[in-house]
Write a structure and sequence with these properties.
single chain, 283 residues, alpha/beta, 6-stranded mixed beta sheet, two-stranded antiparallel ribbon, 12 helices
Length: 283
């Protein structure tokens, strides 16, 4: 008689079977390609309660279970001021998924309310969240924090920079903290598309919280230009996919295949460089 699996075991199995090609393999590929995890790492997997971070938690659990590289995990949940319903949903989902979370409180939402007149409250909130997560992770003895940014985030950020910021700027799979010595940020879901995360969520009949910020819920697109810009970029990509189904991969590959010799100007380590620098030396 076949063994009856618990819900979390069914979810784990779906990752390495049903979604092996679209989720598990791209995840492992990113970890290896960008050298995100090394022996002896203690990684704080940062969980916001949304679909991306909850999937990241399960992926990191599976990797630890199967990897020959020894590393430790802490599943870190920062409560920035959630209402009781959202806090409860995160706790219930963590239990359902068999993810042993460590919760700590911060005043990020309260501080965001005070600064709600800022040009980019979402950016401000993200910066404050990250600072609190770095600090707590370091306190717990971690040397890395893992965030749930995915391939679609990378693609959208690249397009937003071009269309709304007048710059070519990507999102790195890992980076060193400038404020917390010895700490790194890694993005293990760098090669996973959001649409595949949504498919995994629906397949397993899971419900996660979305953005729980009171300010975002009550804001208009005029008040939140960055938020609305991302929405428009998502719509643009969806429209382009109707004509060119591989357009997302093309955009993603473009930031791995930058031809600096064709750019009039670019910045390196914050220093602006011009094609004229080399052009004039050839004379």
């Amino acid at each position: 008689m076949a063994k009856v699996l618990e819900k979390f075991q069914e979810i784990e199995r779906s990752i390495i079977t049903t979604y092996r090609k679209s989720i598990w393999s791209p995840f492992v590929y990113a970890v290896k390609k960008y050298r995100l995890i090394e022996a002896g790492d203690k990684i704080a997997v940062c969980i916001s309660g949304g679909k991306d971070s909850m999937l990241l938690a399960k992926l990191m659990q599976e990797l630890k279970r199967h990897s020959e590289v020894p590393f430790e995990l802490v599943f870190l949940v920062m409560d920035p001021g959630y209402n009781l319903a959202n806090r409860k949903r995160i706790e219930e989902n963590s239990k359902l998924l068999n993810v042993p979370i460590t919760i700590f409180e911060s005043d990020v939402f309260e501080a965001s309310d005070v600064a709600s007149g800022a040009d980019s409250p979402c950016y401000l909130c993200a910066r404050m969240r990250r600072g609190h997560l770095y600090s707590k992770a370091k306190e717990l003895g971690c040397n890395k924090i893992a965030l749930g940014h995915h391939k679609s985030d990378v693609i959208e950020t690249t397009l937003m920079g071009m269309l709304y910021g007048g710059q070519l700027q990507g999102m790195l799979p890992k980076l060193k903290s400038t404020n917390f010595n010895g700490m790194e940020l890694i993005r293990p879901m760098y090669c996973i598309l959001e649409e595949d995360i949504i498919r995994w969520q629906k397949y397993n009949d899971l419900e996660f919280i979305a953005c729980a910020c009171k300010f975002v819920k009550g804001a208009t697109e005029e008040v939140l230009p960055v938020f609305s810009a991302r929405k428009r970029v998502k719509e643009l990509i969806a429209e382009l996919k109707k004509e060119h189904e591989n357009v997302e991969n093309c955009i993603f590959q473009s930031i791995h295949n930058v031809q600096l010799d064709t750019l009039a100007e670019y910045k390196q380590d914050g220093v602006k460089k011009s094609f004229l620098d080399k052009f004039e030396k050839k004379d």
